Protein: Methyltransferase domain-containing protein
Organism: Nocardia terpenica
Amino acid sequence: MTSHNDLIREQFRLQAPTFENAGFSNRGLAWIVEQVAPRREDVVLDVAAGAGHLGRALAPLVSHVSAVDLTPEMLVQGRRLADESGLRNITFCVGDAVRLPWLDRQFDLVVCRLALHQVADPAAVVREMVRVTRPDGRIGITDMFVPAAELAAETNRLERLRDPSHNRTLAREEILAMVETSGADVVSESFEDFGLGLDDWLDRTQTPDDARAQILSRFTEELDGGPATGLTPSRTSDGRIRFIHPWITVTATPRA
């Protein structure tokens, strides 16, 4: 039987060659960096890093970054891009976010960008992040969130049609509760809406034609006055469809 981790690896193996498409993978990096407030002396861990977009954005500002991810192809991309940028203080390693291969209290700053919705057990990821953070360290978690509970089922249905490895977009309250129950105290929350073109979004995951048609039909239905999807579609002046992903960044510190 195919595990959820296998689905993730296969999906991101497919995405790896195009993960640097202009504007797509770099969304929100400056905003996240501002929220997590890196320090020059920080030793950083980027969890479920993909190609290390956040880790590479942090590397010039800190002492060292380790980027860990399930998908080797993504890490190869990250290493290549880091080399092209002249970054010498970032390392890439294969590993599972629910079983991080580090001892307790190893890092000053532990971050995770756009991964909680992907994994089968997001609470376990948060627990591991807290575990490897030093007592005076910080944790930064960024992900999409569902703006209203009644929209969660439809939002996640559409996300899974597009990407079978998508598990579940969480509500803000769920993310905060995971942080608190993992032994950390929330310090700050910040919110941003990020717009995406529907065609680019579907191309990124090589979504099959039948699933594309279902998603397009559902967005069109909402635009014509039908039930909300939770993704707030709109039409541009030339008729293309765009939509919104609301993001949250939570920062926290391990509880004493």
Remarks:
- The mean pLDDT is 93.
- Strands lie at 43-47, 64-69, 90-94, 107-113, 133-144, 184-197, 234-235, 241-254.
- The chain has one domain: 4-147+165-195+244-254.
